[in-house]
Design a protein that fits this description.
This protein has 375 residues and is mainly beta. The protein has a single domain, classed as YVTN repeat-like/Quinoprotein amine dehydrogenase (Methylamine Dehydrogenase, Chain H), CATH 2.130.10. The protein has 2 helices and 31 strands. The strands form 9 sheets. Strands 16-17-18-19-23 form a 5-stranded mixed beta sheet. Strands 4-5-6-7 form a 4-stranded antiparallel beta sheet, with no helix packed on it. It has a 4-stranded antiparallel beta sheet with strand order 8-9-10-11, with no helix packed on it. Strand 12 and strand 13 form a beta hairpin. This is WD40 repeat-like protein. InterPro entries: SWT21/TCAB1_mRNA_Telomere (IPR051150), WD40/YVTN_repeat-like_dom_sf (IPR015943), WD40_repeat_dom_sf (IPR036322), WD40_rpt (IPR001680). It comes from Neocallimastix californiae.
Length: 375
């Protein structure tokens, strides 16, 4: 979702970034509209990550840009009006070969781009295309036991302008870096349940939320003092798909899809406000709890991989779909002793015509817009 709430940017398996322009929902009362993309851009390789310039305004063409990171290519800054490349930023490995970052993000004032690589974060000045102006080794050496190891797969800046950057690694760790103090690592959590695929600060900056691969919970961390795991928000998420979440601008709600096609809405718990005394606060933080959704709606037939809030209106966005593999068991007939007319779909035997290719499950690759309140 663009910062001004006018556009949606999506990435799909065909390596194309699509830009959709929302109709004026304050004037239009039509529902069930089909929206076609107004812009398509393609680097020709798998898209690892993309994000909007934080001060993007559609009314100002100079600010209407987004960046993308694709396999074996530099970071590209795209013009959201014409689909042309405005600038390129090259991330290099230790052999001075261009290597694509797995995550990218602007800092809060939009002056720098942070790129997450293997054991490394590189920093770019957007006014100086080309190579990085600084870098942060997340671990001193590959064999070192210190620092944060692995591919930095996600990043988020604390919205309180403290300069704190949270980074999640596919090697099952979360690190918080102080970008105002030589990018020093000031907090780390290791040995999590899976590779971390998303981190996001709460609106007040007191908590950090994270989600890992093949896990059923979105974890809330206390980053003020204790660094403890306070609670997790439960939803079915044991899948190889990345299932992201989003937090409302007022910090009251969190939404996430799940592998069953449900949209889960949670009321975020504020541990400070719910405690009347310091002793009660300490007791609450010692007691870990799993929180079920406040609301749970079946909105798609397939896995909901992404859910997001509109920055200003009571509108939600969901994106569903996953890779489907066609199976022909004829090639495995001798191994599995299955006849040509029998195929396996989701661990169940089904009769099919001979030599027919089967696509497992129902496929629903769609980006949907939902109104959840009066405008």
């Amino acid at each position: 979702m663009s910062p001004d709430g006018t556009c949606i940017l999506s990435s799909s398996n065909d390596n194309i970034l699509r830009l959709f322009e929302l109709p004026d929902i304050t004037k239009s009362k039509e529902r069930g509209l089909k929206i076609d993309p107004v812009l398509k851009v393609c680097d020709g390789e798998s898209v690892y990550d993309y994000c909007w310039y934080p001060y993007m305004r559609s009314s100002d063409p100079s600010s209407s840009v987004f960046i993308s990171a694709s396999r074996d290519l530099p970071i590209h800054m795209w013009d959201a009006y014409y689909g042309t490349i405005r600038a390129s930023y090259c991330t290099y490995d230790k052999y001075d070969q261009i290597v694509a970052p797995h995550s990218i993000n602007f800092n809060l004032d939009g002056s720098k781009i942070y790129a997450g690589l293997n054991n490394l974060i590189q920093i770019f000045d957007i006014s100086r295309p080309g190579g990085p102006i600084d870098k942060k080794l997340t671990t001193p050496t590959r064999k070192s036991k210190h620092g944060q190891k692995g591919i930095i797969a996600c990043m988020d800046f604390n919205p309180d302008y403290s300069g704190l950057l949270a980074a999640g690694s596919l090697s099952k760790s979360i690190g918080i870096y102080d970008t105002n103090n030589s990018n020093e690592l000031i907090f780390q959590k290791k040995k999590l349940k899976g590779g971390v695929i998303q981190v996001q600060f709460s609106s007040d900056g007191n908590y950090l939320y994270s989600v890992s691969r093949q896990t059923d919970g979105i974890v809330c961390w206390d980053i003020r003092n204790t660094g403890k795991m306070l609670c997790d928000y439960i939803r079915p998420g044991k899948t190889n798909q990345r299932i992201s979440f989003d937090i409302s601008k007022d910090g009251k709600y969190l939404i996430s899809g799940d592998k069953e096609g449900y949209l889960n809405v949670y009321e975020l718990k504020n541990f400070v406000k719910s405690a009347e005394t310091l002793e009660e606060l300490n007791n609450q933080e010692k007691k870990f709890e799993s929180i079920e959704p406040l609301y749970r709606y079946k909105v798609q037939k397939d896995t909901i991989t992404s859910a997001a809030f509109h920055p200003y209106y009571p509108i939600l966005f969901t994106c569903s779909g996953q890779r489907k593999f066609k199976l022909n068991i004829e090639d495995y007939e001798n191994e599995n002793k299955i006849t040509n007319s029998e195929h396996i779909i989701n661990n169940k035997m089904e009769k099919q015509d001979e030599n027919e290719m089967i696509e497992s499950d129902i496929s629903e690759n769609v980006l949907s817009v939902w109104q959840v309140g009066p405008i």
